[in-house]
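Supplementary Methods, section 5.1.

A reviewer requested that the exact input to the structure prediction be made available. We therefore reproduce it here, unchanged from the version used in the analyses.
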Amino acid sequence: MPTLDELIRRGARGIREHLGLNAREARIEALALAAHALEANRAWLVAHGRDRLAGELQEKAEALFCRREAGEPVAYIVGTREFYGRPFRVTPATLIPRPETEHLVEAALARLPPLCPGPLPGGEGERIKVLDLGTGSGCIAITLKLERPDLAVTAVDVSAEALRVARGNAAALDAEVEWLESDLYAALGGRQFDLIASNPPYIPEADSHLGQGDLRFEPPGALASGPDGLDALRAIVREGRAHLAPGGWLLFEHGYNQGEAVQALLRQAGYAELFLERDLADQPRVSGGRRSYQP
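The structure derived from this sequence is encoded token-by-token as follows.
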């Protein structure tokens, strides 16, 4: 019967060999899976590294290692992924939140009016209205609401199952968000918002990366969008002006090689104050623009 340390080393070795990760990455994943299997935190794992596990617990941990060796994402195995310092439940119905998307949240927060001191406005009509298109796990909408409690946040997704996950995350994190089942703007009628944010599908549908790594397990409709990956972004940009209040912002995440194309889409659609922000790897990642105050 192996010790806990031996079990984790063995698990990390298998993950490294099957998935080509480096030793540090593989150990981090093995620790996360062992912690989930044993319902413990990582500090407990370190403190009990010399303990020998009962056969049932060993088998439970090894089963999770095998799932990861087959390529299943750790986030789906353990059921959660951290985003902006908070845990979000994820399932195969939702994308796995990624650090790059935190740049979209930062860009949105930077373009909202400052939080006014004192009590929050009483009526919804007085609140700053924000829309999250294609919310998935709800990580963008919920994070914006928690960072700015004065916002009136609406989030939409075409997937009813994704919305169930998002609602659960909102309840767990005590965030008040309006959830609507909608294909982009379809269910919004003539409603307008002060800011629209989106992490839409933007990978070309024939891209080989869709058959690699974690992407193999994520919902295809939330990843790929047309031959050049821009179909959803074209619709978001084209129809966005009708759903923005005068002076409102539209911003979205996109692929590292799509910066010039999305800037052209925004320019052609008449948005002003265009911007493009880079991620921590210095890749173009978030673009947006503003609806003019003029009709």
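The radius of gyration is 21 Å. These observations are discussed further in the main text.
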